[in-house]
Amino acid sequence: MKNNNKKQHKVNRNSKKGKKGLSRIYNALFYSLDGIKAAWVDEVAFRQIAVMAVIFIPIGIFLGESWIEKILLVLPCVLCLVVELINSAIENIVDLISLEINPLAKKAKDMGSAMQFIMCLFFVFVWISYVVCKYILL
């Protein structure tokens, strides 16, 4: 019985999921680049956060004295980008399912927005606290 379940599972899988090894990694690279390109072209918020990251990542690398400080300043920038990609994916899948106003669709989109808001607050907190502790309080 267990063997039939395993065979059944494989039969129902997406045929594009069958790749393994380096070909899977190779394909995943291009799917990821397509996702970043789509976010850049279609999502204003992603472009805004990407520009912010392009500005703040070099500043973080320059300001941080140790590896840990550099990571502390760069990580919130990267996480803001990741969270915006997740938020955009949620919004796109909700819109794919239906463009009609629905309380659950609104809830999903609002939660994605809240996720990005919390991440932006974290970004501001890390940067302000670092600058205050490092350069004002000495």
Brief overview, please?
The protein contains 5 helices and no strands. With 138 residues, it is mostly helical.
List the helices and strands and how they pair.
Blueprint: H1 2-12, H2 21-42, H3 44-63, H4 67-97, H5 103-136
Helix pairs in contact: 2-3, 3-4, 4-5
Describe this structure in words.
There is one protein chain. With 138 residues, the protein is an all-alpha fold. The protein has two domains: 1-35, no CATH class; 43-136, Orthogonal Bundle (Helix Hairpins). Helix content is 86%, strand content 0%. It is built from five helices and no strands. It has helices spanning 2-12, 21-42, 44-63, 67-97, 103-136. The longest helix is centred in the last third of the chain and has 34 residues, at 103-136. The radius of gyration is 20 Å and the shape is globular. The relative contact order is 0.08. The mean pLDDT is 90.
Number of strand elements: 0
Low-confidence residue ranges: none
CATH architecture classification of the largest domain? Orthogonal Bundle
The largest pleated sheet is described as: none
Total DSSP helices: 5
Which shape, going by the Cα principal axes?
globular
Strand content: under 5%
State mean pLDDT (0 to 100 scale): 90
N-to-C SSE series?
HHHHH
Helix content bin? over 70%
Rounded to the nearest angstrom, the radius of gyration is: 20 Å
Query: How many angstroms does the end-to-end distance come to?
Result: 68 Å
CATH class group of the largest domain: Mainly Alpha
- Would you tell me which CATH topology of the largest domain applies? Helix Hairpins
Instruction: Decide which structural class fits the backbone.
Output: mainly alpha
Give the domain tally: 2
